[in-house]
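Memo to structure team: turn this sequence into C-alpha cells by end of day. - J.P.
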Amino acid sequence: VPARAQVSGAGAAVWPDCGARPGPPDGVCSQAPELSREEKLQLRKEKKQQKKKKRSEKGPSAEPAELGSPPEPGQPRGEPAPTSPPAPADVPGDGEKPMGGKSKAELRAERRAKQEAERAQKQARKAELSQAATTAKPRQSPTEPQCMVKRLPEHVQVNDPAAQRKLAKKLERQQVPLRQDYGTKVNLFSHLHQYSRKKPLTQQMSIPSTVIHPAVVRLGLQYSQGIINGSNARCIALLEVFKQLIRDYSTPPNEELSRDLVAKLKPHISFLNQCRPLSASMGNAIKFLKKEISCLPDTLREDEAKEKLQDMIDKYLREKIVLAAEAISRSAFEKINDHDVILVYGCSSLVNRTLCDAHAKKGRAFRVVVVDSRPRLEGRETLRRLVRRGIHCTYVMINAISYVLPEV
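Reply from structure team:
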C-alpha cells in the first residue's frame, strides 16, 4: 500500500493510519447513495474542528497536523497533502448505523457537546485576560492632585475669531450695530467683553430708520452707563419695556402674531446684549415671554392677544420677583440674631430688604459692615438705605477687609 490513501477498484479506501476500511466484496458494486451538498459541508466542518482541536492540544508553536503522509516531491512544504474524498460506501444511509456503532443523532450530540465545551473555554480565557488587564492598570488615588488645567471652550470666549465672525453676521442680518471694543485690550481679560465708553452704540444708528424701538434704545443706554444696576432691577425694567413694545406692535398683513412678534423681538434682544450682556434673570424672562407668545391661539384677535401677554408679564413680575423676594427675605432674617456682625459687599436689593425686615419686623439689634470698591462704589447706596432705617453700619474699602474680618 503506498503512503497516501488509494481507492481500490472495488471501492474500499486504504488509509495509512487506520488501515483499510471494510467495503463490499470484490465484484460487488456499492449501492450507497451519493453525498448531498449539506452532508459534504458538514464533513468539512468536522475536519476543520478536528484540526483546530489537534493544534490547540499541541500548542501554538506546533505545526498543524497533516491528515495524510508527507507531501510529494513536487508539492510545496507549506501546503498540506491532498486527501482523497471518502468513498460513498463509507457514508451510512438515513436509517443505517456506521461501522462504529453510533447513529447520526449520537454523532450530532457529541459535536454539539464539543462546541459547547470550546465556547466555554474561550469565554473563560476572555474573562481571565480582561481581569488581568484591569489589575495591571494603576488606579489613581483620589487624594492625588490633578494638574490638568480646565479652560473654557473656545466658542464661549469673546476673543475667539469664529465667535466674532458669527456674531457680526448675526447682527448684520438683524440690522443691529456692533459695539466697538477698546483699541488695546488688557491681555489678562482678553476673553471678556471690553467695551469703549467713548464710542456709544447709538453713534452708528439712525433712529428714524432703525428697527429698534426707542424705548429699547433708551434702556440699552441706561444699561451700558450703569444707571440701572442689579439683577432684579434690570429684569423689571426689561419686562416693562417689552410691555410697551407689545402695546405699540401691529401685526403685518398675511402674518401671524405668534410668529411675527417673536421675530421682531430678536433684534431688540441682540441690541440689549450689545449694550451689556444679559443677566440670568433677564434670560429667564425672555424665555418665558417667547414661550407665551408661541402658545397664543390663532383664533384670538390682536387686541385680546396683546392684552393677554401684558397680563402674563404682570403675573410673572409678581410671582417670580416680588413674591419670591418676600419668601427669601422671610426665610433669611430668621437666621439673624441679636448682636450679630454681618458683612455685605456692594449693593443688592434683596440683601438690603432682608436686613431691613430683620431690623423692623423682628426688632433684631445687629451691626453691618459694608465693603465697597471702585469704580462704581455701589456700597454707598447700601449704606444710605441701612442708615436711613436706623441700622448701625461700618463702611470700609475692599483693601481693608482683612482688618474687619475677625469681628464678623
